[in-house]
């Protein structure tokens, strides 16, 4: 092979690319739009990876309202949790298990888990002292009255909280401030604290 023909063979292989503007193929534009759209759908489906508690995927105004506005029952439970932390947990403890020999448990207590709240509301209003049996364990101590400290809303809230505390495995009907007000009226003349024996004579539904 002579050098000329070798050169022209080389030229053929390394032909200079031409500069200029070519049209983007339509199929590529189409695929890119489709991928972009699919990406947005995927992002939307996982809540945009934002924390749903902070950036709820609300699709309507009523969705948002349901999230922001709590029912009166939920509000009462939340208030009860606060009242419990402030007024009760010092003795009965956060876990509701009390302190052996001093403060009885509320978690699993037959006093808390009674069918109605007649006794427990009275007990919170006036306090209780003397011998009492809770979950088969005897106590003989004293709990202060709350009638001058907690209003009807707060008594209803804290009783609702301990009767419905799911962490303690409870799920009983709560109490309304109206029910507390009615009981407060009935025991308005009672100045001292309750004895367990007297409280046991009270119908739990009254
Ligand atoms: C200063 C400590 C103390 C505080 C604070 C206290 N309690 Fe008590 N509580 C007791 C004691 C002591 C008894 C048992 C009384 C007895 O021995 O007769 C008791 C008994 C009870 C009982 C009946 C027994 C049982 O374990 O189920 C309930 C219900 C109760 N308390 C609820 C509450 C609630 C609700 C609050 C907050 C509003 C509260 N207590 C705050 C000390 C306390």
H/E element sequence: HHHHHEEHHEH
**Separation, N- and C-terminal Cα atoms:** 117 Å
Low-pLDDT runs:
none
The radius of gyration is 36 Å
CATH topology of the domain at 72-199: Cytochrome Bc1 Complex, Chain D, domain 2
Q: Please name the CATH architecture of the domain at 72-199.
A: Orthogonal Bundle
Helical content, roughly?
Answer: 40-55%
**Helix count?**
8
- CATH homologous superfamily annotation of the domain at 72-199: Cytochrome c-like domain
| CATH class bucket of the domain at 72-199 | Mainly Alpha
Class of secondary structure makeup:
mainly alpha
The largest pleated sheet is described as: 3 strands, mixed
Residue share in β-strands: 5-15%
In order across it, which strands form the biggest sheet? 2-1-3
Which ligands occur here?
Answer: heme C
Q: Kindly state the number of beta strands.
A: 3
């Amino acid at each position: 092979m002579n050098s000329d023909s070798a050169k022209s063979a080389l030229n053929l292989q390394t032909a200079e690319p031409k500069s200029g503007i070519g049209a983007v193929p339509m199929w590529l534009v189409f695929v890119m739009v489709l991928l972009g759209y699919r990406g947005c759908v995927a992002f939307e489906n996982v809540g945009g990876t934002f924390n749903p508690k902070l950036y709820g995927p609300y699709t309507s105004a009523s969705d948002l309202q349901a999230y922001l506005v709590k029912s009166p029952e939920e509000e009462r439970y939340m208030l009860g949790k606060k009242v419990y932390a402030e007024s009760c947990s010092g003795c009965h403890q956060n876990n509701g298990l009390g302190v052996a020999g001093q403060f009885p448990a509320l978690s699993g207590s037959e006093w808390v888990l009674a069918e109605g709240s007649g006794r427990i509301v009275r007990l919170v209003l006036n306090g209780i002292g003397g011998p009492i049996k809770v979950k088969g364990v005897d106590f003989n101590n004293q709990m202060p009255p709350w009638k001058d400290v907690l209003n009807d809303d707060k008594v209803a809230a804290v009783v609702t909280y301990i009767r419905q505390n799911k962490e303690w495995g409870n799920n009983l009907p709560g109490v309304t401030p109206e029910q507390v007000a009615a009981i407060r009226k009935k025991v308005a003349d009672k100045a001292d604290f309750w004895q367990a024996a007297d409280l046991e004579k009270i119908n739990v539904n009254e």
